[in-house]
Amino acid sequence: MKEPVEVPLAADLDELSRLAEVVEDFGEANDVPPGAVFKLNLCFDELITNAISYGFDTLEDASLSVALAVRDSSVVAIIRDNGRPFDPFAETPEADTTLQIEDRPVGGLGVLLVRESMDDFSYERQDEINVVTLRLKLNRAETP
């Protein structure tokens, strides 16, 4: 196993493309299947976009990072930000996928995607920092 990777991010949506490259490099170095890399990048896009777009009063002092490691046949990803306290898994309205698209309220689909893509996910607030932990088992990660 290679060393874990920690990626500090500016509070700028353009950073998502740089993060995607880091995740792809991490995947190659750690024999992470392409399907897992795809799922991780999709979840990062959703969660980090929401944090940058809605989590800060001002982006000047915003701090974000993503850590990646392979542990016990799983990829563990930790997203940290110093935005307002927000648990995306408890505070995001449940997406009603039975409604027609034009009848659905805005929001919730990104978190639904994270819930369905990852094997485990959690949120906690540690010393004024939002910490979202995602886990994806490598043996089921091949299909995007």
Q: What do these coordinates show?
A:
The protein has 144 residues and is α+β, with helices and mostly antiparallel strands. The protein has a single domain (5-137), classed as 2-Layer Sandwich (Heat Shock Protein 90). The chain has 4 helices and 5 strands; from the N terminus they run E-H-H-E-E-H-H-E-E. The chain has helices at 15-29, 34-54, 88-91, 109-117; strands spanning 5-9, 64-71, 74-81, 120-126, 129-137. Strands 1-2-3-5-4 form a 5-stranded antiparallel sheet, with helices on one face. Helix 1 runs antiparallel to helix 2 (34-54). The longest helix has 21 residues, at 34-54. It is globular. The relative contact order is 0.20.
Structural class: alpha+beta
Characterize the biggest β-sheet.
5 strands, antiparallel
Distance between the first and last residues' Cα:
23 Å
CATH class: Alpha Beta
The second-level CATH architecture is 2-Layer Sandwich
- CATH superfamily (homologous) name: Histidine kinase-like ATPase, C-terminal domain
Strand order of the largest sheet: 1-2-3-5-4
Portion in beta strands: 25-35%
Computed over alpha carbons, the radius of gyration is 15 Å
How would you spell out the order of helices and strands?
A: EHHEEHHEE
Query: What's the total count of β strands?
Result: 5
Helical proportion, percent range: 25-40%
- As for the CATH topology, it is Heat Shock Protein 90
Per DSSP, the total helix count is: 4
Rounded mean pLDDT is 86
* Uncertain spans: 95-108
What is the number of domains?
Answer: 1
Name the shape in a single word. globular
